Amino acid sequence: MKRFRPVGLLAATVLTVVALAAGCSAPAGEPGPTSLPGPAQSSTRPSSPSPGGSPSGEGSPSAAPSASATPSPSDPGTAPSAPPAADPAPAEPDLSLVAGWTLEQKVGQVVMVGLPVKGPFQPTFDMLRSEHLGGVFLHGRTQAGRQPVKNLVNAAIAASDSPVPLFVATDQEGGEVQVLRGKGFSTIPSALDQARLAPADLRARSKVWGQELALAGVNLNLAPVMDLVPSATAASNAPIGAFDRNYGYTSKSVIAHGDAFAEGQRSAGVQTAIKHFPGLGRVTANTDTTAGVTDTVTGPNNPSVTVFAAGIKDGTGLVMMSSAVYSRIDPKAPAVFSPKVVGLVRQHGFHGVIITDDLSAAVQVQGVPAGQRAVRAVDAGVDVVLASAKPSVAPAMVDALVKAAKGDPAFAAKIDAAAARVVAAKAGL
């Protein structure tokens, strides 16, 4: 289905550029741009903060060594626990949802591209149209407020050639990971501070935060973080604990408060993606800025995994995969490329959409060509490939997925299933 592109799109885009640029003064401690950056200079950020610097991802953060924090047995949540019973018959996706679609349209639903909130905007608009992409991720930082963000979202929707509405996603966790600020957006406390609230209070506040996103046109929040971080090693846990992104330090706290945040968002009409399965709470380096990040502690029955099972049971629509290696589950591949680790999500009864962490710029996966990152993720069972920090690689990912599907009927079937899951998830928005 060809979408009509309004004549006023160019004017709306110009106004959006001016408004967002005017509202993009950086928070304290973050450098502010003197002009709208180009793709190579864009002040975008991976979906996890960077160690050794501002979590905005601006500048050149120092890379921490690739290592794993090994908590002491006395740390909460380190003792193994049995996982829920595996689902004996995973629900098959409804392939009728994509019946009659071209292969290119199906692949488009499987790739989510970054839309830098400080610009440039047009490259992403062009990809939305030419590649039939089904999702955008508002990336970076802006203090412009709701209306300029809504204008940007409207321009992206007008540029889209997707047969179904777009997923419009962002990172609005709170604390140091909050993309959208300014008039119309609350200042959201960190997850660690949110965990000090009663779950009912957090649920109510999260509903308000979700309503703010919905009014700006955002329908998917890549949150909450449900990584289990032992208190004794939190300071050295570069991607999560070092930035207070964790909902406390015990399974009980993470489940109660992570679920409360997610329930509040969904009650406002914003879908959630719990992250980063099977947990980034034990590593000491960040996959966005470091290669070889490996967790040597987390196994398939570990509490780090079972907190995600609780989030799945609570009703999240998406689960985000980590790109770390988990030597006790599959030592041969990053989780996002591992059928064993991705399959573990399905074993916990999850029938929704599995999405990657950013695969466009993360140092952990740079040894694999961009197109093959997408192919390996989908082949492992992932449904959506996120290309947020470096949107320019999205066409290569699309091309590689189309080529792989044309050459392999089994892979083509995985594309069909992934696209159907995405369309089904959008139907609930």
Task: Describe this protein's structure.
The protein is globular. The model is unreliable at 1-19 and 21-89 (pLDDT under 50). The protein has 429 residues and is of the alpha/beta class. It has a single domain, classed as TIM Barrel (Alpha-Beta Barrel), CATH 3.20.20.300. The protein is 34% helix and 11% strand. An 8-stranded parallel β-sheet has the order 12-9-7-6-3-2-1-13.
Poorly predicted regions: 1-19, 21-89
Q: Based on the structure given, which CATH architecture is correct?
A: Alpha-Beta Barrel
CATH H level, superfamily name: Glycoside hydrolase, family 3, N-terminal domain
CATH topology: TIM Barrel
User: CATH top level?
Assistant: Alpha Beta
Proportion of residues in helical segments: 25-40%
- Strands of the biggest beta sheet: in what spatial order? 12-9-7-6-3-2-1-13
- Strand % is 5-15%
Instruction: Report the major sheet.
Output: 8 strands, parallel
Q: What distance separates the N and C termini?
A: 20 Å
Alpha plus pi helix count: 12
How many beta strands in the DSSP annotation?
13
> How many domain regions?
1
Which class do the helix and strand fractions yield?
A: alpha/beta
* Rounded radius of gyration (Å): 20 Å
Describe this protein with a few key phrases.
globular; 13 strands; disordered N terminus; TIM Barrel; alpha/beta; 8-stranded parallel beta sheet
Brief synopsis:
This protein is of the alpha/beta class.
Secondary structure elements and their pairing?
Elements (H helix, E strand, L loop, with lengths): L8 H14 L80 H7 L1 E6 L5 H9 L4 E5 L6 H14 L7 E4 L1 E3 L2 E2 L12 H4 L4 H17 L4 E2 L29 H17 L3 E7 L16 E2 L7 H12 L3 E4 L3 E2 L3 E5 L4 H9 L5 E4 L13 H11 L4 E3 L6 H14 L1 H19 L2
Parallel strand pairs: 1-2, 1-13, 2-3, 3-6, 6-7, 7-9, 8-10, 9-12
Antiparallel strand pairs: 4-5, 10-11
